[in-house]
Design brief:
Length: 501
């Protein structure tokens, strides 16, 4: 008798469950059709109308001779030089969520979510020109997705092509010379500010950027414009000019190389004395530049004082961005008494002036700033803003530097590259059998490395009489500028002049 009772209770429970389910479905149906009916009908109508964005063709980027550097391809953007021009050209990628949010918060947001935009280099800086204006098609579709009719259309407008100041061959050669080394190389025209080549190493593949995002060598970091380094002896160009302009020395001034100077418990030596135990006697400015004599420049620093030295460094552009048409430029640093007091809560000492006069201590410069510094001498005292777009009117300023003083500094730089100077790879420099006189400055900069490694610098103008090109090389922790950096500049200039008529 028990079994039928159990079965009866199960049936009643099942019937109750069915009634509850039916009631829920009826309630949902009433909600959809009566309460929210208009909302869902609107969605159905909107699903029938589809907006399709039509991206515009991105502008082509050319070098100064009309050679293609970047162009459109079926699978995305094509970069002819690959990593060799990655930092200066940049790359393109889909708008990120963060970029989209930032864009929507501004009043001039002009791209749509999912659009491809420039993310670095010239691709980013001139994105508005290169990107063009996207088009759109509004069409009515059937429930199956078939287009029934076109409601409206706007035609995409292709982006502008841009012609750069870069030289494709020189850019490729510069990259080859730096490959597998950390550093930077810049070549420019001193009298106009046109950048002929700009390379940062290591570089990245603009078509495979994701592979470089977390690399410990920071391949996405542009060392040429964003890296700030102690300049070492290349800074002596500023010190020499300042001392002449402030009438602390003249062409006939002689200073004795004593091998070392001592201030209390502190010792300041000359590199030649420290390495070989030798002194160089009485020196004038030209010979001191040629030999990069530290004792001479310590004395110039003391005669100038840090205020004059700092003011002249800033006049040359140290501590300020140049305004090149690339994002991410570093300003560098030119310290003085006020800076040290604010930053370290310490007063300035004579030893601080000594090491500043030879480009050490807290001075920091980018490779681009060093290139600008030598360009001022090459262009007879004219500072021209560096730029990367051809036919840009030069933005130049004549600095208040006497021609006779510039000539003395320039002669010293010339003797750097001649027998007896520090840039021995340039002794008797010739291309295709023709001797070419150049003027440059070596630099070997300490940066506090526990193994006493040094950055290698070399900056040079050529030819000496009428410079048509300047080259600046920085190699991180590579050693002496004369041994490591100057051969790179020599090879690049050899390539450059081998192509000239």
């Amino acid at each position: 008798m028990v079994a039928p009772k159990v079965k009866h209770r199960q049936v009643k429970a099942l019937e109750l469950l069915v009634l509850i389910i039916v009631a829920l479905f009826l309630g949902r149906l009433i909600l959809l059709q009566v309460v929210d009916g208009s909302y869902y009908r609107t969605l159905a109508d909107e699903n029938r109308v589809k907006l399709t964005i039509q991206p515009a063709d991105r502008g082509v980027i050319y070098d100064r001779h009309g050679e293609v550097l970047a162009r459109n391809a079926p699978s995305g953007r094509e970069y002819v030089l690959g990593p060799a021009a990655a930092h200066v050209l940049g790359y393109v990628a889909t708008v990120s969520q963060e970029q989209w949010i930032t864009c929507r918060q501004s009043s001039d947001c002009d791209y749509w979510f999912g659009e491809t935009i420039g993310q670095l280099g010239l691709e980013s800086f001139y994105d508005d020109k290169l990107r063009g204006d996207a088009g759109a098609v509004i069409a009515e579709n059937s429930a199956s997705g078939e287009t029934l009719r076109e409601i409206g259309r706007t035609t995409p407008v292709a982006g502008e092509n841009i012609t750069t100041t870069l030289d494709l061959g020189l850019q490729r050669k510069a990259y080859e010379l730096l490959k597998n080394q950390k550093g930077a190389l810049i070549a420019s025209i001193p009298q106009t500010g046109e950048i002929l080549a700009l390379v940062s190493s290591p570089a990245f593949d603009p078509g495979k950027v994701a592979l470089s995002l977390n690399h410990p060598d920071l391949p996405l970091f542009d060392r040429a414009i964003g890296g700030s380094y102690p300049p070492g002896s290349v800074f002596k160009i500023v010190t020499a000019t300042a001392a002449l302009q402030e009438d602390k020395i003249n062409a006939d001034t002689l200073i004795e190389d004593t091998g070392e100077l001592r201030v209390g418990a502190f010792r300041y030596g000359n590199w030649y004395f420290d390495q070989y135990g030798r002194k160089e006697g009485m020196l004038n400015l030209v010979r001191a530049i040629a030999r990069s004599n530290d004792i001479f420049f310590y004395q110039l620093g003391e005669r100038l004082g840090i205020k004059h030295l700092s003011d002249w460094a800033k006049y040359f552009g140290v501590g300020k961005i140049t305004g090149i048409d690339l994002a991410g430029e570093g300003a560098g640093l030119m310290p003085d008494e006020e800076w040290k007091l604010n930053y370290f809560k310490e007063r300035w000492f004579l030893g601080d002036t000594y090491i500043s006069a030879i480009g050490q201590g807290n001075i920091l410069m980018t490779p681009l700033q060093v290139n600008q510094m030598v360009n001022v001498v090459a262009a007879d005292g004219v500072w021209c803003r560096p730029h990367l777009i051809k036919d840009t009117p030069p933005d130049c300023l004549k600095l208040n530097i006497d021609d006779k003083n510039l000539s003395l500094v320039k002669e010293g730089l010339k003797q750097v590259t001649e027998t007896g100077g520090t840039a021995y790879p340039f002794f008797n420099f010739a291309v295709n059998g023709k001797t070419i006189s150049v003027a440059g400055k070596t630099g070997t900069a300490e940066f506090g490395d526990p193994d006493d490694k040094t950055h290698a610098w070399f900056t040079v103008m050529a030819p000496f009489d009428e410079p048509q090109i300047s080259v600046t090389v920085l190699l991180e922790a590579a050693g002496e500028g004369s041994e490591k950096a100057s051969p790179v500049a020599k090879d690049l200039l050899t390539y450059w002049f081998s192509r000239q008529p």
